Structures are given as C-alpha cells and as structure tokens.
Give the backbone structure.
Amino acid sequence: MLTEEIELTTTHRSPALSATNIEAAVKALRERGLRVSAARRLVLEALYGAEGPLSAERIAQGLEGRLPRSDLASVYRNLETLEEVGLVRHVHLGHGPGLYALAAPEHEYLVCESCHAVRTVAKAELDGIRSQVLDRFGFEARFTHFPLVGLCPRCLSESHDHEENEHAHP
Ligand SMILES: [Zn+2]
Ligand SMILES: [Zn+2]
C-alpha cells in the first residue's frame, strides 16, 4: 500500500511532511511501515542539526566529526526514501549535486551567481513574485528545487560602483 503510493507520486510533488524533531520523524516513518535503522537515524540527526542544506557527502563524512561516518551509497538511499516520504527535499544551489534539507518548514533560496552566496527565505516571502508570474503566464513558480538566481546586494552595489567608475573615466 505504502509502496504503491510512493510509486505514484514523483519525489518533488510528494506533500511536505512536517516533523518538528527526530522522534516525530521516526514516528512518521514507522507509521508508514518504514524501518528506522541506525544509518537512517544518522541521516535524520544530520538534517535536524543542520543550519542549511547539506550534501550527501558531508553527511557521509560525519559533518566534521559531529557524527559517525557512514557509507555514501546508504546515505543517498536513505535521503531518497526520506524524500519520497516527504520529510526531505533537495535543492540545486550550484553546479554540484543536490543538497538536502528538511521539507518543513518550506524554504526557498536566492543564489548569487557572482559570489555564490545563498540566502534562505520562507516560502511566503516569494509569494508576491509567484502571484505576478501566475497572473502573467499562468505558471506557478517554485524556488524550492532550483533557486532564484541573480546578484546579491553586495555584488550588485559593486557592479554599480564599477559602472560609475566607467562613466567617470571613459
Ligand atoms: Zn554576490
Ligand atoms: Zn533535483
């Protein structure tokens, strides 16, 4: 029954499942008939302890000694299962592999294409843009899977300074 539901929904469209702590996440997994192995629990610990999205590699490496190291392939498998269930989402913040974070509360991301700074924002903060795009194109924009890319305030002001200098000394 559970397996069928998972196969019918694609990873990103599975509704976000909110679990405020590891115990709630473990309970949610058990209710869905999923085992909570030591390896799976480690992945949860990494995600609940993280301040931002993490790569599978960093989780496998034990987050700089904060957690035991684990097998990368098993970390990926566990992240995949957690994502299918809706507890986890991945986001592509650069050219590398996706980064993983808890699905709730839902966050969206702004990435600077010049200095690669990442700003995490509550989803509601981009609702204004979302409704403009929806009105104009009938398209519902999401910045959870791929971020909104542009220039951060610092790089923007540097590029303006640069332009002013160019005007001053043509
Ligand atoms: Zn920047
Ligand atoms: Zn993806």
Residues 112, 114-115, 117, 151-152, 154-155 surround zinc ion (ligand 1) (CB under 6 Å). Residues 1-102 form a domain with the Arc Repressor Mutant, subunit A fold (CATH 1.10.10.10). The chain has two domains: 1-102, 106-170. The two ends are 70 Å apart (CA to CA).
